[in-house]
């Protein structure tokens, strides 16, 4: 198990060096994106329109923050991961956009695993229930996109983070997945148990 600190823009070589179970800290620019943001990004790409940000080498965090408007901009109070599997239909699109790290909870499926391998990326597990701790790594809320259209949770928030973590590599670029391993072991134990009681 290795420990790494990645700063945006993250390179393909950096993520291909990481394996499931490795510990990662993140610094630089993070984009929050949930269901509606992913859907709008897909529509913009399909129409050949410009995206609101440059995502190459970037980090997408499946999250919606709790924020307060101030005279200086925005103050972020709490931010925690949302369930990542909802964004599974957009896996190839996210890889094609150049995103190198996805942060969320609960894991993702085969489409994401394929995209991480194809484009070079990792899926990181952020500790759930630690929204205040995650927010402490945020140095600044730089921008927000589509706030009026989608509201606070679904907007894209552009955050500047410093040594945010620890995160665990749940899925790597080599096709390995902690979630797949757990399911395989659970099925093996189940078969052993049923064989024992027959």
CATH C-level label: Alpha Beta
CATH homologous superfamily, by name?
A: Fe-S hydro-lyase, tartrate dehydratase beta-type, catalytic domain
What's the number of domains? 1
CATH topology: fumarase
Q: In one word, what is the shape? A: globular
Q: Estimate the mean pLDDT confidence.
A: 93
Order of helices and strands: EHEHEEEHEHEHEHEH
Radius of gyration: 18 Å
Structural class: alpha/beta
Secondary-structure arrangement, i.e. CATH architecture: Alpha-Beta Barrel
Count of strand segments = 9
Keywords summarizing the entry:
five-stranded mixed barrel, fumarase, 7 helices, 198 residues, alpha/beta, two-stranded antiparallel sheet
Task: Write a structural description.
The chain has one domain (3-197): Fe-S hydro-lyase, tartrate dehydratase beta-type, catalytic domain (fumarase). It is built from 7 helices and 9 strands. The protein has helices at 12-16, 35-46, 91-96, 110-119, 131-135, 147-150, 178-197; strands at residues 3-7, 23-32, 59-61, 66-70, 73-78, 101-104, 122-125, 138-145, 156-171. Strands 2-3-6-7-9 form a 5-stranded mixed beta barrel. Helix 4 links the parallel strand 6 (101-104) and strand 7. The N and C termini lie far apart (39 Å).
Helices and strands, with pairings:
Blueprint: E1 3-7, H1 12-16, E2 23-32, H2 35-46, E3 59-61, E4 66-70, E5 73-78, H3 91-96, E6 101-104, H4 110-119, E7 122-125, H5 131-135, E8 138-145, H6 147-150, E9 156-171, H7 178-197
Parallel strand pairs: 1-2, 2-3, 3-6, 6-7
Antiparallel strand pairs: 2-9, 4-5, 7-9, 8-9
């Amino acid at each position: 198990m290795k420990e790494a600190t990645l700063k945006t823009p993250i390179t393909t070589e950096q993520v291909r060096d990481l394996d499931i179970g490795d510990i990662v800290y993140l610094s630089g620019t993070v984009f929050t994106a949930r269901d509606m943001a992913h859907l709008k990004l897909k529509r913009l790409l399909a129409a050949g329109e410009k995206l609101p940000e440059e995502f190459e080498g970037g980090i997408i965090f499946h999250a919606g923050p709790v924020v307060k408007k101030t005279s200086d901009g925005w103050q972020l109070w709490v931010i925690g991961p949302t369930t990542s599997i909802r964004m599974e239909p957009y896996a190839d699109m996210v890889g094609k956009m150049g995103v190198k790290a996805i942060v969320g909870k609960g894991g993702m499926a085969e489409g994401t695993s394929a995209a991480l391998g194809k484009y070079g990326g990792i899926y990181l597990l952020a500790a759930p229930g630690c929204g205040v701790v995650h927010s402490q790594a945020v140095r600044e809320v730089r921008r927000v996109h589509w706030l009026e259209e989608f509201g606070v949770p679904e907007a894209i928030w552009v955050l500047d983070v410093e040594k945010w973590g620890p995160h665990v590599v749940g899925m790597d670029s080599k096709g390995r997945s902690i979630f797949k391993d757990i399911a395989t072991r659970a099925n093996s134990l189940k078969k052993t148990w049923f064989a024992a009681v027959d």
